[in-house]
Amino acid sequence: MAFRHVQEAYEEDLRSVQALEIKLDIPQRWEPEDDAWQNAGHLVANREYRRALDHLESLVVARIFELSKINRAGTGYKMRKHIAKALQTRSAAICTALDHYNAARQWHGYG
Predict the structure, then answer these.
(1) In this structure, are residues 108 and 45 in contact, taking their beta carbons and an 8 Å threshold?
(2) Three-state secondary structure along the chain?
(3) Per-residue pLDDT tens for 46-89?
(4) CA 97, CA 59: separation in Å to the nearest integer?
(5) Does residue 104 sit in helix, strand or coil?
(6) How many whole angstroms separate alpha carbon 91 and alpha carbon 85?
(7) What is the pLDDT of residues 43-53, one digit of tens each?
(8) Considering only CA atoms, which of 77, 99, 76, 80 is closest in space to residue 88?
(9) Do residues 43 and 84 make contact, with C-beta atoms less than 8 angstroms apart?
């Protein structure tokens, strides 16, 4: 029963794709060996790399601002504890972002 539903959904999606290809006058689908496919793959990889880099950079800058806040004169004990807890959370987020950055870098060909 579930297989039949999946098959019907696939066929409906295929008809939609074929109708769009006709409407847009697309003579041939891209294959993994095509230059256009390869170029699109490089563009996607570059975008993922840049997004990971931007996210990592924003987290590091936010951490630097929090570190400068903690050493400011007039920062009370409670505020320092609050900032320290935020730094711990941010540290975990930076580690995760760094993992994503390294994976994107490797996939992009920088690593």
Answers:
(1) yes
(2) CHHHHHHHHHHHHHHHHHHHHHHCCCCCCCCCCCHHHHHHHHHHHHHHHHHHHHHHHHHHHHHHHHHHHHCCCCCCHHHHHHHHHHHHHHHHHHHHHHHHHHHHHHHHCCC
(3) 999 999 999 999 999 988 888 887 777 777 888 888 888 888 88
(4) 8
(5) helix
(6) 10
(7) 988 999 999 99
(8) 80
(9) no
